[in-house]
Amino acid sequence: MVVQTATPQAATLRSATVITSETVRLSDLFADLEPGQDRPLGPGPAPGASIQVGGGQLLAIADEYGVDWLDQSPSAMATITRAGRMLDQTFFAELVRQNLPEIGNGPVAIELQDFHPFVVATDDPKPVVLSDVKWDQHSGWFTATAYRGRPVGDITQDSFMLTGVIHATHRVIVYARSLPSGTVLSASDVRMNDAYAEHLASKTFTNAAEVEGLTLTHGVVAGEAVSDQDVQRTILLHRGDPVLIAFTAPGLHLTATGRALEDGGASQYARVLNLMSHMIITGRVVSASEVEVEPGSGGVPSDSAGMRSLAAAALAPPRADLSLR
Fold first, then answer.
1. Where are the alpha helices (DSSP H) in 171-247?
2. Per the UniProt record, which residue ranges are transmembrane (predicted)?
């Protein structure tokens, strides 16, 4: 009777391996090891870093631990990378907030100065500890000392100064794109920013409807807050101009002739006089010759003083200015 014995299966080289442990094992280099053959080899790379093991070293390791592997070659190469977790500005900003309860829960922006992100182990529950946190509430500047939870033995990396400034943020309308001077703003040109951290030197807007139809007095950059110094009212309808008054409702469309009682810009509301009913109506300026009256909007009777003012405006010479701040 002939007894057949199983032929051990040859191991295969792992050309690229990602580990989470601090230690490199034989199984990180070779797959299909025999039972009980795996063992630790030495320290692994730092979190986020890699090491390469060349063919000569692989042959020596395989020989020392009795690993029979396929395609043995001095030109073989294995790369071992240790997984890591990136600690970025968002992480440290939240850490600063946790260490400064006096900031409160209001909207603030925490900006770090000369910051460089670094990588820590993925299983490190408390990778950084802040100490000596100081904050000048008047200027907004803060300083702190950051210590690694797991020191790496390098004094230049195990602790460092964390500095920055804390700004109160604002909810404002900002430009959605860069725009040239003379642009008449529409709703698509702006967007809401709930945490705008830049300094506000002048009045800003918090509602897109407030800037629709205004004209830019100079070029602007995407992301800037929309300021009253950027815009001017675009006059389409001048006081005394003839105008068509339009009223539209489901199944109904009425028009009447009138005259403007005041200047009005695009999408703004202006008072007009209905020349047939002599009622003063408020409508939205659609163009230089049309005002749209919304359903439910009522009129008020005109008085003799208003009529005289309208007549004087109609007889006045045309003006050269086309816009009003």
1. 208-211
2. none
